[in-house]
Amino acid sequence: MSTHLPSLARPDPTTTAPAAAAPLSLEERLALANVAMTARLDEAAVAYEVNTAHIDIKPVDLADIVTGPIDTPPATTPHLYPTPVAAVLQRAHQRLISGGWCTNTLVNTDGARCMLGAIRIEAGGDRRLESDAATVLLDAIRRQFGDHVDSVPSFNDAHGTFRVPLRMVDQAAVLADARGL
C-alpha cells in the first residue's frame, strides 16, 4: 500500500509575477493625497453639521461686535529726528497714522491725507523742505520697488491699503536722517 504524500518542494511556477508598477511622481502622489484629504474633510464637515444641527443659535448683532477705535489722543512722538527733512517725514508718518491715509487726492473729506499731502502739511508751507522730503521719499520707494515708479502720488494711488505707503514714509525718514537731510 502506497500512500501519496504531498511534496514539500515548491513547484516550478508556471506563470510569471506581474512587473512592478513604476513609482509615482511627486505630482501624482500629491494629487492622491489631495483627493484623500478632500474626502476626509467632506466627511468631517458632514459629521459637524449632523452633530451641531440640534443646537439652538441666537442671532448675533454685529453692532455688538464691530466697534470703532477708542477716542484717545494721538500718541506723541518720543524722539524727532534732528535733521529737518527727516523730521518732516517722521511727522508725516505720524499724521498718516493718526489722521488717516487716502488715495487719489491730497486730502479727502474726512481729513485723511495721501503721502504727499501729509508731507505738504508737515512742511508748513516751506516748498523747498516739501520738495526735499518728497525727493527722499521717492528715492526710498525706488530703492525697494525699482525705477519704474514714476512719482510719489502714483505710488500712493497704486495701493489699496495704508500699510506699504506708511512703511515707505517711515523708511524715507530713516534714509533722510542717514543722509543728514
Q: Can you walk me through this structure?
A:
With 181 residues, the chain is an all-alpha fold. Among the domains are: 27-56; 84-179, no CATH class. It has 7 helices and no strands. It has helices at 26-52, 62-65, 84-99, 115-122, 127-145, 152-157, 163-179. Helix 4 runs antiparallel to helix 5 (127-145). The radius of gyration is 34 Å and the shape is elongated. The model has no long low-confidence stretch (mean pLDDT 83).
- Spans of at least 5 consecutive residues whose pLDDT stays below 50 are none
Query: What is the oligomer described by this structure?
Result: single chain
Share of helix, binned:
40-55%
Question: What's the overall geometry?
Answer: elongated
Beta-strand content? under 5%
The total of helices stands at: 7
Structural class designation = mainly alpha
Calculate Rg over CA atoms.
Answer: 34 Å
What does the main sheet amount to?
none
Query: Based on DSSP secondary structure assignment, what is the total number of beta strands?
Result: 0
Order of helices and strands: HHHHHHH
The overall pLDDT, averaged over residues, is 83
Termini distance? 118 Å
